[in-house]
Design brief:
Layout: H1 2-6, H2 19-32, H3 40-66
Helix pairs in contact: 2-3
């Protein structure tokens, strides 16, 4: 998707995304679709809402796949963490 290329993932929320990035994403989207000129404002608003939701889902997928899968998971319902044995080596 073109919008993903325009908006960085380091923003905490879509509200923090610069207007220039949002406009660039909207311009990329406009290149792919034909729409009636009188509907531009409503379509832009809906497109930015969809981009915001998609960005949040994408960032959640990244966190789940690349961060949460690499941390210690609770051993049981008590919340104790199981930590793998790490052999000690002298460097």
């Amino acid at each position: 998707m073109g919008a993903r290329e325009c908006i960085g993932i380091l923003h905490k929320s879509f509200k923090e995304v610069l207007d220039e990035e949002k406009e660039l994403a909207w311009d990329k989207l406009k290149e792919k679709f034909d729409y009636p000129p009188e509907a531009v404002l409503a379509l832009k608003r809906q497109a930015l809402i969809k981009i915001s939701i998609s960005l949040k889902k994408f960032k959640s997928m990244l966190v789940n796949e690349y961060i949460l899968n690499r941390v210690d998971l609770p051993n049981d319902l008590t919340g104790e963490l199981s930590r793998p044995e790490i052999p000690h080596t002298n460097f």
